[in-house]
Amino acid sequence: MDREPVYGGLDDGQVEALLPDCDTCVAVEIATIINPAHFYIILPWGKRTLDTLLDPRSTDPGEDDETLDELVTSLQRRYGNMTFPQRTLVHYAEGELVVARFAQDGRWYRAKVLCSDDRERNTRIQVFYVDFGNKEWVSERDIKPMEPQFLHLPFQAIECFLVDIEPTGHADHFSQKAKKMFQEMTDGKTLVAYVKSRSWSGCLYIDLFDTSGEEDINIGKVLIAQGQAQVPRPHSETSLTSRSGSEGSLLLIPG
Question: What angle do CA 127, 129, 132 make, to 5 degrees?
Answer without folding.
Answer: 155
